[in-house]
Amino acid sequence: MSLQVETKRIGQVLCVQLIGELDHHTAPIVRDVIETEMNKSATLHILINMKRLTFMDSSGIGMILGRYKQLLQKGGKMAISDIPANIYRVLEMSGLFKIILIADSEQQAISRLEVES
Amino acid sequence: MRRKNRMELTFLSQSVNESFARITVAAFISQLNPTMDELADIKTVISEAVTNCIIHGYENREDGIVSIVAEIEGESVMIEISDRGRGIENLELARQPMYTSKPELERSGMGFTIMENFMDECTVTSTPHEGTKVVLRKHFSLSEELLN
Ligand SMILES: Nc1ncnc2c1ncn2[C@@H]1O[C@H](COP(=O)(O)OP(=O)(O)O)[C@@H](O)[C@H]1O
Ligand SMILES: [Mg+2]
After folding, report:
1. Contact residues, chain B, for A62 at CB < 8 Å
2. What DSSP element (H or E) covers A103?
Protein backbone atom coordinates (compact mmCIF):
# COMPACT_ATOMS: atom_id res chain seq x y z
CA MET A 1 0.00 0.00 0.00
CA SER A 2 1.34 3.46 -0.89
CA LEU A 3 -0.02 5.05 2.29
CA GLN A 4 0.42 4.08 5.91
CA VAL A 5 -1.59 5.62 8.74
CA GLU A 6 -0.36 5.61 12.33
CA THR A 7 -2.51 6.88 15.18
CA LYS A 8 -2.05 7.73 18.82
CA ARG A 9 -4.05 9.59 21.43
CA ILE A 10 -2.76 12.48 23.48
CA GLY A 11 -5.41 13.74 25.88
CA GLN A 12 -8.40 14.70 23.80
CA VAL A 13 -6.46 14.73 20.56
CA LEU A 14 -6.31 11.94 18.00
CA CYS A 15 -2.93 12.25 16.29
CA VAL A 16 -2.84 10.85 12.79
CA GLN A 17 0.53 10.43 11.10
CA LEU A 18 0.39 9.96 7.33
CA ILE A 19 3.29 8.15 5.68
CA GLY A 20 3.42 7.98 1.88
CA GLU A 21 1.06 9.39 -0.74
CA LEU A 22 -2.47 10.72 -0.22
CA ASP A 23 -4.64 10.64 -3.34
CA HIS A 24 -8.05 9.37 -4.50
CA HIS A 25 -6.79 5.80 -4.22
CA THR A 26 -5.55 6.10 -0.63
CA ALA A 27 -7.93 8.72 0.87
CA PRO A 28 -10.52 6.07 1.91
CA ILE A 29 -7.85 4.36 4.05
CA VAL A 30 -7.34 7.53 6.09
CA ARG A 31 -11.07 8.18 6.33
CA ASP A 32 -11.74 4.67 7.63
CA VAL A 33 -8.93 4.74 10.19
CA ILE A 34 -10.05 8.12 11.55
CA GLU A 35 -13.71 7.08 11.73
CA THR A 36 -12.86 3.86 13.56
CA GLU A 37 -10.63 5.70 16.04
CA MET A 38 -13.20 8.43 16.62
CA ASN A 39 -15.86 5.82 17.40
CA LYS A 40 -13.63 3.96 19.86
CA SER A 41 -13.54 6.67 22.49
CA ALA A 42 -14.35 10.27 23.15
CA THR A 43 -11.65 12.06 21.19
CA LEU A 44 -12.49 15.65 20.54
CA HIS A 45 -9.83 16.97 18.18
CA ILE A 46 -7.84 15.63 15.26
CA LEU A 47 -4.27 16.43 14.39
CA ILE A 48 -2.89 15.34 11.04
CA ASN A 49 0.89 15.16 11.01
CA MET A 50 2.16 15.50 7.43
CA LYS A 51 5.86 15.24 8.15
CA ARG A 52 6.23 11.99 6.22
CA LEU A 53 3.58 12.65 3.58
CA THR A 54 5.37 12.83 0.24
CA PHE A 55 2.39 13.61 -2.02
CA MET A 56 -1.11 15.02 -1.73
CA ASP A 57 -3.61 16.25 -4.34
CA SER A 58 -7.14 17.67 -4.10
CA SER A 59 -8.54 14.28 -3.07
CA GLY A 60 -6.65 14.87 0.19
CA ILE A 61 -8.35 18.24 0.57
CA GLY A 62 -11.75 16.58 0.11
CA MET A 63 -10.92 13.94 2.72
CA ILE A 64 -9.70 16.54 5.23
CA LEU A 65 -12.80 18.71 4.68
CA GLY A 66 -14.99 15.64 5.21
CA ARG A 67 -13.38 14.94 8.61
CA TYR A 68 -13.53 18.66 9.50
CA LYS A 69 -17.29 18.74 8.92
CA GLN A 70 -17.81 15.69 11.14
CA LEU A 71 -15.69 17.28 13.88
CA LEU A 72 -17.59 20.54 13.73
CA GLN A 73 -20.83 18.75 14.59
CA LYS A 74 -19.20 17.40 17.76
CA GLY A 75 -17.59 20.73 18.64
CA GLY A 76 -14.07 19.48 17.91
CA LYS A 77 -11.22 21.18 16.08
CA MET A 78 -8.76 20.11 13.47
CA ALA A 79 -5.07 20.84 13.10
CA ILE A 80 -2.35 20.00 10.57
CA SER A 81 1.33 20.00 11.43
CA ASP A 82 4.71 19.62 9.68
CA ILE A 83 3.48 20.45 6.16
CA PRO A 84 6.05 19.83 3.39
CA ALA A 85 6.46 22.67 0.87
CA ASN A 86 4.85 20.90 -2.10
CA ILE A 87 1.77 20.02 -0.04
CA TYR A 88 1.63 23.51 1.44
CA ARG A 89 1.03 24.91 -2.05
CA VAL A 90 -1.94 22.57 -2.59
CA LEU A 91 -3.46 23.31 0.83
CA GLU A 92 -2.97 27.05 0.42
CA MET A 93 -5.00 27.09 -2.78
CA SER A 94 -7.93 25.33 -1.15
CA GLY A 95 -8.56 27.99 1.50
CA LEU A 96 -8.26 25.32 4.19
CA PHE A 97 -5.91 27.52 6.22
CA LYS A 98 -8.81 29.78 7.11
CA ILE A 99 -10.63 27.05 8.99
CA ILE A 100 -7.94 24.63 10.14
CA LEU A 101 -5.19 25.26 12.68
CA ILE A 102 -1.68 25.04 11.18
CA ALA A 103 1.33 24.27 13.36
CA ASP A 104 5.05 23.72 12.85
CA SER A 105 5.19 20.69 15.09
CA GLU A 106 2.92 18.10 16.63
CA GLN A 107 3.60 19.46 20.10
CA GLN A 108 2.71 23.00 19.12
CA ALA A 109 -0.50 21.78 17.47
CA ILE A 110 -1.57 19.80 20.52
CA SER A 111 -1.01 22.63 22.97
CA ARG A 112 -2.90 25.03 20.74
CA LEU A 113 -5.80 22.62 20.29
CA GLU A 114 -6.06 22.17 24.03
CA VAL A 115 -5.70 25.84 24.94
CA GLU A 116 -8.26 27.01 22.47
CA SER A 117 -10.92 24.45 23.40
CA MET B 1 19.02 22.75 -31.62
CA ARG B 2 15.49 22.41 -30.20
CA ARG B 3 15.09 19.17 -28.35
CA LYS B 4 11.99 17.20 -29.24
CA ASN B 5 10.70 14.18 -27.43
CA ARG B 6 7.37 12.43 -26.97
CA MET B 7 5.74 9.69 -24.91
CA GLU B 8 2.37 7.99 -24.88
CA LEU B 9 0.73 6.02 -22.12
CA THR B 10 -2.63 4.25 -21.94
CA PHE B 11 -4.01 2.40 -18.95
CA LEU B 12 -7.29 1.25 -17.42
CA SER B 13 -9.37 3.60 -15.29
CA GLN B 14 -8.37 2.11 -11.94
CA SER B 15 -7.45 4.31 -9.00
CA VAL B 16 -4.31 2.26 -8.36
CA ASN B 17 -2.99 3.67 -11.67
CA GLU B 18 -3.10 7.29 -10.45
CA SER B 19 0.32 7.06 -8.81
CA PHE B 20 1.69 5.05 -11.76
CA ALA B 21 0.62 7.82 -14.15
CA ARG B 22 2.06 10.75 -12.19
CA ILE B 23 5.35 8.98 -11.48
CA THR B 24 5.76 7.96 -15.13
CA VAL B 25 5.13 11.45 -16.52
CA ALA B 26 7.41 12.99 -13.89
CA ALA B 27 10.17 10.56 -14.88
CA PHE B 28 9.78 11.55 -18.54
CA ILE B 29 9.96 15.25 -17.69
CA SER B 30 13.05 14.76 -15.53
CA GLN B 31 15.20 15.09 -18.66
CA LEU B 32 14.47 18.84 -18.54
CA ASN B 33 16.19 18.95 -15.17
CA PRO B 34 13.23 20.51 -13.32
CA THR B 35 13.47 21.70 -9.72
CA MET B 36 11.93 19.55 -6.96
CA ASP B 37 9.04 22.02 -6.75
CA GLU B 38 8.39 21.90 -10.48
CA LEU B 39 8.41 18.12 -10.45
CA ALA B 40 6.04 18.01 -7.48
CA ASP B 41 3.63 20.34 -9.29
CA ILE B 42 3.72 18.16 -12.42
CA LYS B 43 2.85 15.10 -10.33
CA THR B 44 -0.03 16.96 -8.72
CA VAL B 45 -1.62 18.13 -11.98
CA ILE B 46 -1.31 14.68 -13.60
CA SER B 47 -2.93 13.18 -10.54
CA GLU B 48 -5.78 15.70 -10.77
CA ALA B 49 -6.46 15.09 -14.45
CA VAL B 50 -6.22 11.28 -14.25
CA THR B 51 -8.40 11.13 -11.14
CA ASN B 52 -11.02 13.18 -12.99
CA CYS B 53 -11.05 10.70 -15.90
CA ILE B 54 -11.59 7.84 -13.47
CA ILE B 55 -14.15 9.37 -11.09
CA HIS B 56 -16.04 11.66 -13.41
CA GLY B 57 -15.34 10.48 -16.96
CA TYR B 58 -15.86 6.77 -16.23
CA GLU B 59 -17.78 7.21 -12.95
CA ASN B 60 -15.52 4.69 -11.24
CA ARG B 61 -15.95 1.99 -13.88
CA GLU B 62 -12.65 0.18 -14.02
CA ASP B 63 -12.60 -0.77 -17.71
CA GLY B 64 -12.30 2.68 -19.29
CA ILE B 65 -9.18 3.81 -21.09
CA VAL B 66 -7.19 6.81 -19.93
CA SER B 67 -4.59 8.19 -22.37
CA ILE B 68 -1.67 10.48 -21.75
CA VAL B 69 0.57 12.06 -24.38
CA ALA B 70 3.49 14.19 -23.27
CA GLU B 71 5.72 16.20 -25.59
CA ILE B 72 8.86 18.12 -24.89
CA GLU B 73 9.87 20.79 -27.33
CA GLY B 74 12.82 22.90 -26.36
CA GLU B 75 12.06 24.10 -22.85
CA SER B 76 8.31 23.58 -23.11
CA VAL B 77 6.18 20.64 -22.07
CA MET B 78 2.72 19.76 -23.35
CA ILE B 79 0.73 17.07 -21.59
CA GLU B 80 -2.61 15.81 -22.89
CA ILE B 81 -4.82 13.66 -20.64
CA SER B 82 -7.97 12.22 -22.17
CA ASP B 83 -10.82 9.81 -21.57
CA ARG B 84 -13.73 8.53 -23.61
CA GLY B 85 -16.18 8.85 -20.78
CA ARG B 86 -19.36 10.79 -20.14
CA GLY B 87 -17.98 14.23 -20.96
CA ILE B 88 -18.77 17.60 -19.39
CA GLU B 89 -22.04 19.43 -20.10
CA ASN B 90 -21.09 22.82 -18.70
CA LEU B 91 -17.36 23.52 -18.90
CA GLU B 92 -17.53 26.96 -17.37
CA LEU B 93 -19.30 25.63 -14.29
CA ALA B 94 -16.95 22.64 -14.04
CA ARG B 95 -13.91 24.91 -13.90
CA GLN B 96 -15.25 27.07 -11.06
CA PRO B 97 -13.16 26.74 -7.89
CA MET B 98 -14.91 24.45 -5.37
CA TYR B 99 -17.47 23.20 -7.89
CA THR B 100 -17.92 19.45 -7.83
CA SER B 101 -20.70 17.31 -9.29
CA LYS B 102 -19.90 14.60 -6.74
CA PRO B 103 -19.92 16.12 -3.22
CA GLU B 104 -21.07 12.75 -1.83
CA LEU B 105 -17.66 11.32 -2.75
CA GLU B 106 -15.86 13.94 -0.62
CA ARG B 107 -14.54 15.79 -3.66
CA SER B 108 -13.21 19.29 -3.05
CA GLY B 109 -13.83 20.76 -6.49
CA MET B 110 -10.26 22.09 -6.60
CA GLY B 111 -8.84 19.91 -9.39
CA PHE B 112 -9.15 22.37 -12.27
CA THR B 113 -8.09 25.30 -10.06
CA ILE B 114 -4.88 23.44 -9.17
CA MET B 115 -4.20 22.55 -12.83
CA GLU B 116 -4.71 26.19 -13.85
CA ASN B 117 -2.46 27.54 -11.10
CA PHE B 118 0.38 25.04 -11.32
CA MET B 119 0.67 25.15 -15.11
CA ASP B 120 1.07 28.03 -17.57
CA GLU B 121 -1.90 26.91 -19.62
CA CYS B 122 -4.85 24.55 -19.09
CA THR B 123 -7.24 23.94 -21.98
CA VAL B 124 -10.25 21.66 -21.60
CA THR B 125 -12.34 20.32 -24.45
CA SER B 126 -15.24 17.98 -23.90
CA THR B 127 -18.18 16.47 -25.72
CA PRO B 128 -21.02 14.94 -23.67
CA HIS B 129 -21.12 11.12 -24.08
CA GLU B 130 -17.85 11.16 -26.02
CA GLY B 131 -15.17 12.23 -23.60
CA THR B 132 -12.89 14.90 -22.25
CA LYS B 133 -9.41 16.13 -23.10
CA VAL B 134 -7.24 18.32 -20.91
CA VAL B 135 -4.15 19.94 -22.43
CA LEU B 136 -1.59 21.34 -20.01
CA ARG B 137 1.47 23.40 -20.94
CA LYS B 138 4.43 24.59 -18.96
CA HIS B 139 7.70 26.31 -19.74
CA PHE B 140 10.84 25.22 -17.91
CA SER B 141 14.00 27.27 -17.78
CA LEU B 142 16.80 24.92 -18.68
CA SER B 143 20.15 25.25 -16.99
CA GLU B 144 23.05 26.37 -19.24
CA GLU B 145 24.64 22.98 -19.01
CA LEU B 146 21.68 21.26 -20.67
CA LEU B 147 21.30 23.87 -23.38
CA ASN B 148 24.85 23.40 -24.62
N1 LIG C 1 -12.75 13.87 -17.22
C2 LIG C 1 -13.95 14.35 -16.82
N3 LIG C 1 -15.10 13.80 -17.28
C4 LIG C 1 -16.31 14.26 -16.88
N5 LIG C 1 -16.47 15.28 -16.00
C6 LIG C 1 -15.37 15.87 -15.51
C7 LIG C 1 -14.05 15.44 -15.89
N8 LIG C 1 -13.16 16.23 -15.23
C9 LIG C 1 -13.88 17.09 -14.51
N10 LIG C 1 -15.20 16.89 -14.65
C11 LIG C 1 -16.29 17.69 -14.02
O12 LIG C 1 -15.72 18.89 -13.51
C13 LIG C 1 -15.96 19.01 -12.11
C14 LIG C 1 -14.82 19.73 -11.43
O15 LIG C 1 -13.62 18.96 -11.47
P16 LIG C 1 -12.52 19.23 -10.35
O17 LIG C 1 -12.20 20.67 -10.32
O18 LIG C 1 -11.39 18.30 -10.59
O19 LIG C 1 -13.25 18.86 -8.98
P20 LIG C 1 -13.65 17.44 -8.34
O21 LIG C 1 -12.89 16.37 -9.04
O22 LIG C 1 -13.26 17.56 -6.93
O23 LIG C 1 -15.12 17.28 -8.52
C24 LIG C 1 -16.20 17.59 -11.64
O25 LIG C 1 -16.96 17.54 -10.45
C26 LIG C 1 -16.93 16.98 -12.84
O27 LIG C 1 -18.29 17.32 -12.82
MG1 LIG D 1 -10.91 16.49 -9.62
Report:
1. 105-108
2. strand A101-103
